[in-house]
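Blackboard transcription, Thursday session:
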Amino acid sequence: MASSCAHVGRQIHKTANLFHRNVKDTLQRRYFGLGSAIFQQPAAAVSGSAQKIVIPRKKTWNKEAVLQALASTVNRDPTASHYIFQDDAYLTPRTSAEFKLYSLSQESGRSAAKFFINAYPKYFQKDFASPHIPCLMPETLELQINEVSEAALIERIQLRKLKAAVDMYDQLLQAGTSVPLELTNDLLDLICLYGDHDPARNDAPEQSTDDLGEEQEDVKRRKGMPQRASDLLRLVWRENNNAERIFNMMPERNRRSYGALIRGMVKHGAYTKAFDTYTDLLNNRLTGDVHIFNALINAAPEVKEKYTEKWDLIVDLLKQMAEQKVKPDLLTFNSVLKALRRCGSLARTQAFPVINEMKALGIAPSLATYDHILGIFYKAATSAQGYTEILQEVLSEISGKSFTAQDPDDVQFFKDAMRICLATKDIEQAYRVHTLLGVGENWKLLGDSYYQSIYYGRFFNLLCMMEHIDVVLKWYKELIPSLYYPNSQGMRDLLQALDTDNRLDLIPQIWKDIKRMGHDNKTELVEEMLSLMAREKQSPEVQQSFADCALEVKALYMQSDRRVPLNWSASSLSSITSVLLEAEKTQQAWEMLQLFKLNNRVPSESLMHQFLASIKASNNAQQAVELVQTSAGFCLPVTRSLIESIQQDFDLTEEQSKRTTFRQANN
Amino acid sequence: MREAEKAVRWSDYKSSQVTSTGSVTQVSKPVKSSDVNLEREQGAVRDPKLKAHRRGNAALNPRYTSHFYQQCRGADEVKIRLSRSYVIQQLIMAASTMCPAMLLPIRRINCKLNGFYKHISLNKTAAYSSGLTINNAIERQGLPERGSQRQRRQRRAIEPRTERMPVDQDWTAVYPSAASFRPNAVPLPVRMGYPVKRGVPPEKKGNLELIKMGTFLKTFKSSGLINEDVPQSKFSPILMPMVLEWDIPNFLHLTPDAIKKHCEALKPFCTEWPAELDSDTKCEEHFPIQVQTKDFVSAGLSLRNPNTRTVTLTVKLSSLNLDDHARKKMIKLSGDRYNKDTDTLTITTDSCPLKQQNYDYAMYLLTVLYHESWKTEAWEKEKTRTDMEEYVWEDSPSQKNILETLLRMQPLEEKEGGVQEELLGRAEVQEYKDSVTKLKNEGETESNMQQYKEAVKKLLNI
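(Written on the board underneath:)
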């Protein structure tokens, strides 16, 4: 805590400078007026001596400047997890699921606290902080005014009590009072924003799940999860809902009333209705504003079928904008480009004129603009041949720039750019994208943890594919686990990269991470690792560490209290056995051989030969006979050749030879 | 340490006294019990849990702290920790001696102690779970499983991230700002605390002694004791300096590297030092008045620190334009604010609530002092020889005597006016004057006596 209360600066103001040299003569008088005027000018130059001393002016800066300067000295710690978590060996999240769980629990704890503070404000009146911090104090969320009045309506709108506000409005109308236009517009805005449903309070306690009321919906959307289809379905624009009803009852309407309605309709999916309302607006000799047009351009691709019709509608809207002298803004162009993405082949020809228009108007593009351009030229389905230089051009235009969030789609850029890099296997561009992420505040535009994992997943995948293993491992240490928890596919990519560059000796290290990240229950990953370990003979030390690994895997398989127990497959069994044999852990290898029988799996021929070789090395005739017996028990075709070689290489006792030949006869 | 123990006993005594008077019974009791229980627990505690609990509380207990003190004498932390326990005792003492009007702070202290206990018990469970981990490991090695009905698997600790840290890592990124000790992030084999059964002090993992320093103050501050409700006159002399000392949990964030980086980052905020002022003497010449203020930074509830209001103004008297009378009067007026050895006048003002007010007040004081010392009041004429600050030889009995003696030594015919001046102008007489003045003003030291002897010898031609 408590940072060094140590004083940051023991500021010695050597500014006092009261006594001018030339004043000294006059000081002979006893009652010299040592005026306060001299005190008040600490920054004045001192004259009188040979040189003139110029005291620099005091610098001023804004409140956060020092903190920002200090913060800029701090780099990211690649071994630490996200700062919201406890830095503790028990409490650090290890998998992405845990990351989600922990951050959500923290969030829910916080909102629980907030709920109690807001629900019982009388117990939280003491203001500890100095200076006062408003967000720590309870908010008033309860309605204070109960009688029917305009003030009550204003209060309900401010507290976003949608239903109560609508009721109040109706009561006001029934009582015969006329509600001012601006206040009605505020109410319309509120209704249209939330689609005629009460917004869920962030800190409200969760309802039971079977209570499928419409009260709690969009806010409950999980952080880090893509929007589910059901969320979208629930919020629809109903025929004759409160917004339309109030709108129709209004004695006079202005542009803002129409704007609220149109934007609400577009937001909640009533696209054709939005255009009808727009026609109404024109019929009433009103003009639209830029927000109305932005909403309509967004809605344009939904109301028309053909690509050309869509584009014609957009162009028509833009022309109307020009007629009505509405100046387009960044969001207008972003909406146009977004709509163009859904205009098929038309988009590629029309994208550049739009960009040129933007430049002509002097509107600086945001990341969303570039994202739409990339989206137009790199369709996921079509091959991106011939357009590879678009990404390069975009990157060379924006490299080194720091962006701020201006458009909701800004967060899509990084993950989409990385997708294109991955699709074109262009590691150079990937590095450029990643450098851009480090510039200024751009990291804020990477999106939530879900987008982040997508971005880093693609980046890591590309690295594993294209880069030398040393570079991959450098990035691995940099990204994992502080920024990114790879899935099992990511770990398999890493294993393949290890394989390509022949650095299989690093597998035990990776296995540790696999265990930590909870991927040790993914059969495919574990089997792949085992087969890589078993494939070649390594140096003795490496082989020893492989054997330790293999034994750990075996222990995992044997664990009975797992929720999803791992099933032995023939390949995993034989891989572990052969690793153990190579490491000369014969005892454990024999135990493995017993497991084959228990799990109804059949060992391969090569494994049997490996066994034979190890037995030959130790020259144990007894074991050789047992091997033959096991082999015969599995009815392996290799048994015959085994017997022959045993008879050649070992001095068998009579009984032993009898048993082997007995087997032979049986076969 | 002894002082602290004394304080405990005294406070016990005091609080029991208060109890007997009856008016504040229910308030003073918990304070007392929470303090004394610890001492009693030491006697016969069998339960290992309680023992651990006790160990955790070692810092509260003066006896344990003294053991600890012996263990690592000389370490800086010791001073901090000692002062902490001392402060608690002081607080309790102060609280128990206060009148009923001061009940609120006492209750607060009580809360604070409880809060501290809770903190310890929380950490205790963390320490225990490491024990369970071992059990789990044993189970996995094939020993018969005991708690099969257990629903959830015990969560295991992963290897501490210190294992993954490269040797050449950027330490300032690991500890960018002040934080309590995290065993997971500090790759040092630190040990601290009271060793069990003549062993070594406990290791860093789950070690409260290492974490505690900062957290204690947190509870302390959140109780609001420091900033409000406490009359400054009662508390500030004891509390404030101590708080400053153990406000620092550790210095892991203030490595030389970090400080260098911070300095680099803060440079743009500084103005350039005037090139003409290249030496201290020049600074003193042009800017004789120095004003010293302090700013404090702390991670607490409040940005305000009452100590920032203090303003200290220093000035050399020689740089002020004073004649002999004025100078003497100024010294007289300023009293012990004047340092004779360095010839500096120091004015410290802290009576106003704001720094600016105190600064203005200090400047006002200096102005008033200056003017006042130039004035000569009517009564100052009544100053006699005995009122003088220092011995003046002129017109003194010594001068009269020596003149008389010298005149007697002269031939008679030359006893005319003007001879006295001629006599006083002589080198021997001057020397004699100096030695007498020195003897009177500086006291009878050996060299002074020697000088006097020589002067007399020369004067009398012996």
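Lecturer's comment: The first helix of chain B runs from residue 2 to 21.
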